[in-house]
Specification:
five-stranded mixed beta barrel; 21 strands; globular; flavin adenine dinucleotide binding; FAD/NAD(P)-binding domain; five-stranded parallel β-sheet; Enolase-like, domain 1; single chain; alpha/beta; about 30% helix
């Protein structure tokens, strides 16, 4: 006999597990289904983010940053180290430990919140009395009936046409996180978040890294001033970045990968590398979901069609995260998951797409929220801009990390903050203040009038807000 639930969530990534927990907090009976399995065969909830995305990449970024500091920067602090070595298996092992801690943490949260977890693949069977019949295929098959279903199946990396991932030489984000030995030469196709972060990891560990990007402009999604500073910093560190390229052919050999491409000027080029990371975007993961069986509507790119409330074309079926429109960000999925659980409970869940921050965890870090200058110019919006360099910030000097700046964009008449763009130390943490101000539709003057502790990096935010009115105090 089928097990009955108020809500069944398919997928335990950031959107799915958060939706399940919030629904349970609101008094509903909830099940969450996820098929991800750890190397030791145990359940590994958390989706791409926890297993092969946000969490493991940040662990490797941290380890590689320590290695870089020990090799090149400790001497500036009077710390002398001779013969710095690298135990890559230990470094990768630490990353795996961090991942497992997060997997176990989610399983604990399910137990704490009385969410029933099923380890397996969930799919639609039919619309039945009482809701939707969902089948779970795993070590043991389960038959569930749910009044409401939340689809949170995430996304998968996009392959280059005719070049499937083998995770040995042609790597997705998954394979790029577990290369067994530092390659001498590493190629990266795609200068987006994943390409730049993982390229930075292996560059720090000793690889010669070349990044090939199809777009004519580097980091076109970011503010142009930020993108220019990022290109300068990353190139200085040793990343070879080529934009405006057209990939003609990629061939894999016994121990190498050869990429034939045309550069921005149209000249034919050849790059031979030991490993190739392909990071050209992600596609919604709907395979095996049974979407066609129940008539779930999808758009021409394969995304599940939803309205502003994340309702799909089917009654009482919702979808969140990477599998629907909007930015493919873990925190966006989480916000949608909470909002959907609250809507199911009859509340008014809310997601403000205008205040979802974006972060790139390179060094320097890059973070932004709201509109950039090129967007405001295109819209014809009158605005004021204020910026402040980290080289004039006392804490940044003490850290020895003065690259970059904070830029605040505000409405020319009302002073409402329209966007904040940061490149520099701890940008990922500093952006939260900007998100808060914008969520309350605050003004640059509000940031400028708030007392910021000294000496802190956050003072750069205050000074950038002061700069909007041309009254910086420390620059």
């Amino acid at each position: 006999m089928a097990k009955q639930f108020d809500v069944v969530v398919i997928g335990a990534g950031p959107g799915g597990y958060i939706a399940a927990i919030r629904a349970a907090q609101l008094g509903m009976t909830v099940a969450c289904i996820d098929a991800w399995t750890s190397p030791d065969g145990k359940p590994a909830p958390g989706g791409t983010c926890t297993n092969v995305g946000c969490i493991p990449s940040k662990a490797l970024l941290q380890s590689s940053e320590h290695y870089e500091q020990a090799n090149h920067h400790f001497a500036e602090h009077g710390i002398e180290i001779k013969g710095v070595g690298l135990k890559l298996d230990t470094l990768i092992g630490r990353k795996d430990t961090v991942v497992k801690q997060n997997n176990d943490g989610i399983l604990y949260l399910f137990k704490k919140n009385k969410v029933t977890f099923f380890h397996g693949k969930g799919s639609f069977v039919a619309h039945v009395d009482g809701g939707w019949n969902i089948k779970v295929e795993g070590k043991s098959e389960e038959d569930l009936v749910a009044k409401h279903v939340v689809i949170a199946t995430g996304s998968t990396p996009r392959e280059l046409p005719g070049l499937p991932f083998d995770e040995t030489q042609v790597l997705s984000n998954d394979g790029a996180l577990r290369i067994p030995a530092v390659p001498k030469k590493l190629g990266v196709i795609g200068a987006g978040v994943i390409g730049l972060e993982l390229g930075s990891v292996w560059r720090r560990l000793g690889a010669e890294v070349t990044v090939l990007e199809a777009m004519p402009d580097f980091l076109a999604v970011a503010d142009q001033q930020v993108a220019k500073e990022a290109h300068k910093a990353l190139t200085k560190q040793g990343l070879a970045i080529h934009t405006g390229v057209k990939i003609a052919e990629v061939k894999t050999g016994a121990k190498s990968v050869t990429i034939q491409y045309a550069d921005a000027a149209g000249a034919e080029q050849k790059l031979v590398v030991d490993k190739l990371i392909v990071s050209i975007g992600r596609v919604p993961n709907v395979e095996g979901l049974g979407a066609d069986v129940v008539g779930l509507k999808r758009d021409e790119r394969g995304f599940i069609v939803v309205d502003d409330d994340c309702k799909t074309s089917l009654p009482n079926v919702w979808a969140v995260g990477d599998v629907v429109r909007g930015p493919m960000l873990a925190h966006k999925a989480e916000e949608e998951g909470v909002a959907v659980a609250e809507r199911i409970a009859g509340q008014h869940g809310h997601v403000n797409f205008g205040t979802i921050p974006s972060v790139i965890y390179t060094s320097p870090e890059i973070a932004w929220v709201g509109k950039n200058e090129q967007q405001l110019k295109t819209e014809g919006r009158e605005y004021k801009a204020g910026s402040f360099p980290f080289m004039a910030n006392g804490r940044a000097r003490a850290l020895g990390d003065t690259t970059g700046f904070v830029k605040v964009l505000a409405d020319a008449k009302t002073d409402e903050v329209l966007g904040v763009h940061i490149i520099g130390p701890m940008a990922s943490e500093l952006i939260a203040e900007a998100v808060t101000i914008m969520e309350f539709r605050g003004a640059a003057e509000d940031i400028a009038r708030i007392c910021h502790a000294h000496p802190t990096l956050s003072e750069a935010m205050k000074e950038a807000a002061l700069a909007v009115d041309k009254r910086t105090l420390n620059f």
